[in-house]
């Protein structure tokens, strides 16, 4: 693979530590993902600082609200020039259509299907019947129909979604090296398995950020791809 598909999830509370980590591993990742933890703590200023590293930025805000509000939020982040932004696919078709219409140029909008921290039981407890697999496929279809660029799903579903949506853009988090600690993630696969199943982007956080030697961890993951 010519371009490294690994996006480092920079889920760290301190901006200086986040920036130092990203710079340290920058030669062994393809982009940086800034999520709710980072954005709530450091806002636009933090995003501008991380932009200086020069890697593509994935702004994982998981927007989920009425269409008008989500569209306005999308417009408010144009200035940050993200390459990828997330919305929750369960927000519905109109919300996703308006999010895509409001996205900045060269910004992919992807719909989060079923969080990788949920299993079938967790999902059923929210009132959704059927399996996480079925729900992820259903929401992928809705995201496709709404004109999004792709979806976020676990490595367990990405192969099936890819079969239905050949030119989709698929973000896969919940990745763990074969011997990695799963923590709060329930639907995990290895980075290599996700890539082989058709993932476009591999989101990796703690296996790198919490490793004793983050650079060695990033290199080791890169070597498996
Ligand atoms: O949208 C995401 O990136 C996301 C969706 C999902 O279903 N599961 C998931 O873990 N994520 C994000 O991916 C990252 C995973 O981090 P680690 O579990 O530390 O590798 C976190 O930043 C999560 O917010």
From TrEMBL:
Enzyme nomenclature, EC number: 4.1.1.23
InterPro entries found in the cross-reference section: Aldolase_TIM, OMPdecase, OMPdecase_AS, OMPdecase_bac, OMPdeCOase_dom, RibuloseP-bd_barrel
GO molecular function, one term: orotidine-5'-phosphate decarboxylase activity
Coiled coil: none
EC category: lyase
Domain of life: Bacteria
Pfam families: OMPdecase (PF00215)
Keyword line: Decarboxylase, Lyase, Pyrimidine biosynthesis
Sites where the protein binds substrate: 11, 33, 60-69, 116, 176, 185, 205-206
Residues of the active site: 62 (proton donor)
Domain Orotidine 5'-phosphate decarboxylase: 5-221
PANTHER family, per the entry: OROTIDINE 5'-PHOSPHATE DECARBOXYLASE
Function according to Swiss-Prot or TrEMBL: Catalyzes the decarboxylation of orotidine 5'-monophosphate (OMP) to uridine 5'-monophosphate (UMP).
Subunit organization: Homodimer.
Family note: Belongs to the OMP decarboxylase family. Type 1 subfamily.
Protein name, entry field: Orotidine 5'-phosphate decarboxylase
Organism lineage string: Bacteria, Pseudomonadati, Pseudomonadota, Alphaproteobacteria, Sphingomonadales
């Amino acid at each position: 693979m010519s371009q490294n598909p690994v996006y480092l999830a920079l889920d760290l509370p301190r901006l200086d530590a986040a920036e130092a980590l990203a710079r340290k591993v920058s030669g062994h990742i393809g982009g940086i993902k800034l999520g709710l933890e980072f954005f709530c703590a450091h806002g636009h200023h933090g995003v501008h600082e991380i932009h200086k590293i020069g890697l593509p930025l994935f702004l994982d805000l998981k927007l989920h609200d009425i269409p008008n509000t989500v569209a306005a939020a999308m417009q408010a982040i144009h200035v940050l020039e993200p390459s990828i932004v997330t919305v929750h696919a369960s927000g519905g078709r109109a919300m996703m259509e308006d999010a895509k219409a409001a996205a900045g140029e060269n910004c992919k909008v992807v719909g989060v299907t079923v969080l990788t921290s949920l299993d079938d039981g967790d999902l059923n407890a929210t009132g959704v019947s059927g399996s996480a697999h079925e729900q992820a496929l259903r929401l992928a279809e809705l995201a496709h129909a709404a004109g999004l660029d792709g979806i976020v799903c676990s490595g367990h579903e990405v192969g099936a979604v890819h079969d239905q949506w050949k030119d989709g853009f698929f973000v896969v988090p919940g990745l763990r090296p074969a011997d990695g600690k799963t923590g709060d993630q329930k639907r995990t696969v290895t980075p290599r398995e996700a890539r082989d199943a058709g993932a476009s982007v591999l989101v990796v956080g703690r296996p790198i950020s919490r490793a004793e030697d983050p650079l060695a961890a990033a290199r080791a993951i890169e070597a498996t791809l």
